[in-house]
């Protein structure tokens, strides 16, 4: 069989790149053969974005170590978070006419800096409202492999917030959800009675220009690394445990590029930072969470979090070519909410066609029919699925049972088999690029 690269995970004593401790991977040339292990950047899957690479058994000289440390330092942002907070204080004192944002550098400018940025594109008259909605001011990072930012459509963001409120949460740990964070923070600043607070953890340091150290931590969710060190970790720890009577939820919307096990391991560590009150009982309780991710990762997520279930709600995005509402009717988004909260508590909007299945005790898409044989509402993509007696499960409406493959597939599939499991769904029979989960057809 063909070889590949697999993640082994975080390793004690791992070397660091500018994005914190590297992760250990194994490269196999042929299935079954003992692979060679190496460290690579946790955050960037493209070597162009971070070229860090080291064989596990490689001897690294003192000189090279020193050079690496120097390099890592040089790659840190030119202003610290603290400095950015000071800069914002000065920025808001300026009259509107002097409040400029450099679009080329993605930075708020103080008058003394205008000169250095001459020739750059400015956005002027930055209002207080704009400072409160940085996700609209900053352009979404678009690097597909490393840091594609898909921002929630307003409707989905509002839905998430309403749900969080209805479930009685008072604090939200926003992991890679700048738009949810911003909706919460700006409501809190406008309305005295709105008592929900959010802490944003994100790798996008541009946000440090708009939030204090109590509102934003520069964080890498693939290796649970706080760029701000112990102080930042402490901020997060305190946020999670502040007032034990207030309920906290973690909401994460990570990049979809794989590495589910790395994400799961970081989320576990964040959950461990949240400690339940030393109340009687309930000691084994898991920190409530929404993990927002495509439905075809369901089996991978459940493998790491068996207490989770997938909700039918389709999360929509503003700037995703595939997953946003088209002008001409609705495109189906494959992105769902995975949660450890009891499914029946997650009330989905009736006006968008979701309904409650009394047998499954959860809200489902309008097209999701309860299958008598599976005894479950089986559709994953919102369309009505059909039961295959030979596979003994429900399958996509466009699939047919193939006797050669002994399973259901698209009519025009090629009956070739590969031995290794698919990277995305984990099933054998196809490679990642041909994963049936990826097509909505
Ligand atoms: N839908 C969300 C944005 C999700 S896009 C919203 O509208 O709020 C993914 C987010 O994860 C981005 O904000 C991106 O900056 C962040 N991100 C990407 N890689 C990350 C990493 N390694 N660690 C932490 N955050 C990361
Ligand atoms: Zn049902
Ligand atoms: Zn069925
Ligand atoms: Zn079948
Ligand atoms: Zn076949």
UniProtKB/TrEMBL annotation:
Name assigned to this protein: ZCHC4 protein
Compartments it resides in: Cytoplasm
Name of the gene: Zcchc4
GO CC list: cytoplasm; nucleolus
Species lineage: Eukaryota, Metazoa, Chordata, Craniata, Vertebrata
Annotated organism of origin: Eudromia elegans
SMART domains recorded: ZnF_C2HC
Entry annotated with the keyword Cytoplasm: yes
GO molecular function, one term: zinc ion binding
Cross-referenced InterPro entries: Mlase_EEF1AKMT1/ZCCHC4, ZCCHC4, Znf_CCHC, Znf_CTCHY, Znf_GRF
One of the Pfam families matching this protein, by short name: N6-adenineMlase
Keywords: Cytoplasm, Metal-binding, Methyltransferase, S-adenosyl-L-methionine, Transferase, Zinc, Zinc-finger
Residue stretches making up the CTCHY-type domain: 352-413
Domain GRF-type: 17-59
Ranges for domain CCHC-type: 422-437
Superkingdom in the source lineage: Eukaryota
């Amino acid at each position: 069989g063909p070889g590949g690269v697999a993640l082994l995970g975080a390793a004690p004593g791992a070397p660091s790149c500018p994005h914190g401790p590297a992760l250990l991977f194994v490269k196999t040339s042929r299935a079954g053969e003992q692979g060679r292990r190496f460290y690579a950047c946790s955050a960037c899957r493209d070597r162009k974005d971070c070229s860090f690479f080291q064989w596990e058994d490689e001897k690294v000289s003192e000189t090279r170590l020193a050079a690496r440390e120097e390099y890592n330092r040089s790659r840190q942002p030119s202003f610290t978070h603290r400095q950015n907070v000071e800069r914002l204080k000065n920025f808001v004192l300026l009259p509107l006419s002097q409040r400029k944002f450099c679009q080329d550098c993605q930075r708020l400018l103080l008058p003394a800096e205008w000169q250095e940025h001459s020739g750059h594109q400015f956005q002027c008259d930055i209002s207080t409202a704009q400072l409160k909605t940085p996700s609209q001011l900053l352009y979404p990072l678009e690097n597909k492999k490393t840091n594609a930012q898909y921002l929630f459509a307003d409707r989905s963001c509002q839905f998430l917030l309403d749900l969080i409120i209805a479930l009685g949460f008072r604090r939200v740990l926003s992991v890679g959800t700048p738009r949810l964070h911003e909706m919460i923070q700006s409501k809190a600043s406008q309305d005295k009675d709105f008592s929900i607070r959010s802490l944003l953890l994100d790798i996008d340091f541009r946000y440090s220009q708009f939030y204090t150290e109590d509102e934003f931590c520069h964080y890498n969710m693939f290796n649970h690394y706080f760029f701000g060190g112990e102080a930042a970790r402490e901020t997060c720890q305190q946020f999670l445990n502040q007032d034990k009577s207030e309920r906290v939820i973690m909401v994460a919307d990570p990049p979809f590029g794989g590495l589910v096990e790395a994400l799961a391991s970081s989320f576990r560590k964040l959950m461990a930072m949240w400690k339940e009150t030393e109340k009687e009982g309930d000691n084994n309780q898991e920190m409530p969470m929404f993990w927002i991710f495509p439905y075809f990762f369901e089996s991978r997520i459940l493998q790491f979090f068996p207490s989770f279930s997938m909700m039918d709600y389709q999360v929509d995005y503003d700037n995703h070519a595939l997953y946003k509402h088209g002008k001409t009717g609705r495109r189906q988004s494959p992105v769902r909410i995975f949660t450890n909260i009891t499914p029946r508590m997650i009330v989905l909007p009736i006006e968008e066609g979701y309904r409650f299945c009394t047998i499954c005790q959860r809200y489902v898409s309008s097209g999701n029919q309860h299958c008598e044989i599976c005894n479950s509402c089986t559709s994953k993509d919102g369309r009505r699925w059909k039961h295959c007696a030979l596979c003994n499960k429900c399958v996509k409406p466009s699939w047919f049972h193939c006797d050669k493959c002994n399973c259901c597939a698209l009519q025009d599939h090629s009956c070739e088999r590969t031995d290794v499991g698919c990277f995305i769904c984990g099933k054998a029979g196809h490679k990642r690029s041909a994963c049936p989960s990826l097509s909505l057809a």
